[in-house]
Design a protein that fits this description.
Layout lengths: L2 H4 L2 E7 L2 E6 L1 E2 L5 E2 L8 E9 L8 E6 L10 E4 L3 E4 L4 E2 L3 E3 L8 H12 L5 E5 L17 E3 L5 E6 L1 H16 L3 E7 L12 H15 L5 E6 L10 H14 L6 E2 L17 E4 L3 H15 L3 E5 L6
Parallel strand pairs: 10-11, 11-14, 14-15, 15-16, 17-18
Antiparallel strand pairs: 1-2, 1-5, 3-4, 5-6, 7-8, 8-9, 12-13
């Protein structure tokens, strides 16, 4: 049948009185995976549950040791308006954008990593899906979904090669100390990925969060310029947030980025405000107002662009 749909897999990890359930996913070639980012060192037991007999009631123990040097853990909100890594090392978000870099040629992807390694940036905003816009007119080597015989997309089957490349690039960013602010939807689309059915949206979100939820340098951005996507309603965005937060066992940072209209950043699932403004001075002057208005960090994620 369809291993992405037909098989459901969860794994419960337990250490003393702490228990965490993690969703599994199909990674092609008959392989199912569960990825877990333990919140602390210790002896963690695990047991799977699945509708597949072969994957059900698998048990074992994982010995989790202290982080290696240079591993500060994931970034969290600290002291209401600021950020720090899990080990309390301060983190300053100084971001750039390379929306569709993982959908370019391998050579350009490598060039991008070399450029970033020599830059002062500590965060990059990047899309999952390819982008159809200025400077982005190419067709990627792979897409998130596979095609049917008639050329249309099969939203119930993922191209694992696409996701393997994406996660390898996120790990490469991790190695050079850059957080990946991953944009899950965007409006600049000619393939139909911005207007998929509700079930396909939820299915995709569940899959990508299960694949990437154990990566310590991932942030979730539900959308770039959410208000430029006319087929998605506020109810959709709230549902998407519920799927992501339910599947994310590690509780990564999560927000949504605006075009012209701010989202309601008081929503409890939003950890920080991801703000676009085009007037540098107004943005700077309003930062304190935004923090006081929403009681959360205000990250000005698009205030013009930072040069060539």
């Amino acid at each position: 049948g369809n291993p992405f749909i037909d098989v459901e897999l969860h794994c419960t990890f337990q250490c003393e009185d702490e228990s965490i359930q993690v969703g599994g996913f199909y990674d092609g070639d008959g392989t199912y995976r569960v990825r877990f980012m333990p919140p602390r060192a210790g002896s963690w037991t695990f047991q799977t549950s699945s509708n597949s007999v072969a994957l059900n009631a698998v048990t074992g123990t994982v010995e989790v040791v202290s982080p290696e040097a240079g591993n500060h853990g994931p970034v969290e909100v600290r002291d209401t308006f600021h950020f720090a890594y899990k080990d309390r090392t301060p983190y300053l978000p100084f971001g750039t954008t390379a929306y569709a870099w993982t959908n370019q040629t391998r050579e350009l992807q490598e060039q991008t990593l070399l450029s970033l390694a020599e830059s002062p940036f500590t965060k990059i905003r990047m899309c999952v899906f390819p982008k159809s816009y200025s400077y982005n007119s190419n067709e990627p080597d792979n897409y998130a979904f596979v095609r049917k015989a008639d050329g249309s997309w099969d939203f119930s089957r993922f191209d694992v090669a696409f996701f393997r490349n994406l996660e390898q690039r996120i790990l490469s960013l991790q190695e050079i100390g850059i957080e990946a602010d991953l944009i899950l939807f965007h409006p600049y689309d000619r393939w139909g990925f911005s207007d998929t059915p509700d079930w396909a949206d939820d299915f995709y979100l569940s899959y990508i969060v299960r694949r990437l939820g154990a990566f310590r340098n991932v942030w979730w951005s539900l959308a770039n310029e959410y208000d430029f996507m006319p087929t998605k309603t506020e109810e959709d965005w709230e549902r998407f947030a519920a799927v992501v937060t339910r599947e994310d066992h590690a509780g990564h940072l999560i927000s949504i980025h605006n075009g012209l209209k701010f989202y309601d950043y008081t929503r409890p699932w939003i950890t920080h405000c991801s703000i676009q403004r085009t007037d540098n001075y107004v943005s700077a002057e309003n930062a304190d107002t935004w923090r006081e208005q929403w009681g959360k960090p205000a990250v000005i994620d698009e205030v013009g662009y930072e040069g060539d």
